[in-house]
Amino acid sequence: MRIREGAIPTALGTVVTGVGAAMVAAEMTPVIAAGVVGFGAAHMVLGAIDLVEHKKHHRRR
């Protein structure tokens, strides 16, 4: 089984964003919680870009 390029960063970003959201809900340090959410969201966006680009390259072949 092959994992598509971009799937791991997208999944990791989803998990990290969830952890950051839990930190916000638990009223932990707001700056750190916002940073964790942003870090996770960035991974989701970059992973999604990789998934889309990888799909485009396979269509051309």
What does this structure look like?
- It comes from Clostridium diolis.
- Keywords: Membrane, Transmembrane, Transmembrane helix.
- The chain crosses the membrane at residues 31-52.
- The protein is mostly helical.
- The chain has a domain at 29-61.
- The protein is 82% helix and 0% strand.
- It contains two helices and no strands.
- Helix 1 runs antiparallel to helix 2 (30-60).
- It starts with 6 loop residues before the first helix and ends with a helix.
Report the span from N to C terminus.
21 Å
Q: How many helices in DSSP terms?
A: 2
Which percent bin holds the helix content? over 70%
* Sequence of secondary-structure elements: HH
Q: Which stretches are poorly predicted, pLDDT < 50 over at least 5 residues?
A: none
Keywords: Membrane, Transmembrane, Transmembrane helix
Protein name: Asparagine synthase
Organism: Clostridium diolis
Transmembrane segments: 31-52
Provide the descriptors you would attach to this structure in a database record.
61 residues, mainly alpha, 0% strand, elongated, transmembrane, transmembrane helix, Asparagine synthase, membrane
Q: Helices and strands in order, then pairings?
A:
Elements: H1 7-25, H2 30-60
Helix pairs in contact: 1-2
Keywords: Membrane, Transmembrane, Transmembrane helix
Protein name: Asparagine synthase
Organism: Clostridium diolis
